[in-house]
TrEMBL record:
It holds the Pfam family Mtb12_C. Coiled coil: none annotated. Residues 1-24 form the signal peptide. Residues 52-165 form the Low molecular weight antigen MTB12-like C-terminal domain. PROSITE patterns: PROKAR_LIPOPROTEIN (PS51257). Keywords: Signal. Belongs to the MTB12 family. This is Low molecular weight antigen MTB12-like C-terminal domain-containing protein.
Length: 170
């Protein structure tokens, strides 16, 4: 039973991560003074190409659209690091994540957005599965093509933790 619940939490976490990744950019301009380091494929992005940091309200607003099954995968792909390449390699990836979110009655609320410097930020969020107590998760984003995008390696690690593989992660 514990393994089944862990799997559901992992599915919900992955879906939450994907959903947060759908929030491309915002108009917030506050950059907290604490800086942390992070690495990603987009690390070489120039400072001139870093978009404004999105606000909590903007991320929460985008979640509704990002988790809507009627929004095409092509639109959602723009919010994942190297998303068009991922979509070309695995057209079902985005839909599978949205379905997992809905099937597990997952709820998500972004509570904080922290700019980490350079081309990285983290969204902190509370999420719950099937009416359970909220858990906290940190979701990494990278600036790519003038937008904040969900870090692909983090999304792929989530898929792997679920025992799933995606050609997009190879």
């Amino acid at each position: 039973m514990k393994l089944q619940m862990t799997g559901r939490i992992a599915v919900a976490t992955l879906a939450v991560v994907a959903a947060l990744g759908m929030s491309a950019c915002g108009s917030g301009d506050k950059h907290p003074t604490s800086h942390k380091t992070a690495t990603s494929k987009a690390a070489a992005t120039s400072a001139a190409n870093v978009p404004p940091v999105p606000t909590v309200d903007e991320l929460n607003s985008e979640l509704t659209k990002a988790l809507d099954p009627s929004v095409p995968a092509e639109q959602k792909a723009q919010w994942l690091e190297d998303g068009q390449d991922a979509l070309a390699k695995d057209p079902q990836m985005m839909g599978n994540l949205t379905n997992a979110y809905q099937q597990n009655n997952a709820k998500i609320t972004v509570t904080q957005v922290q700019y980490l410097g350079g081309d990285t930020l983290t969204a902190k969020a509370d999420f719950s599965v099937n009416g359970g107590a909220p858990n906290s998760v940190d979701v990494p984003f990278v600036a790519q093509d003038g937008q904040w995008k969900l870090q692909k390696s983090w999304a792929c690690a989530g898929l792997k933790n679920l025992g799933q593989e995606s050609p997009a992660c190879e």
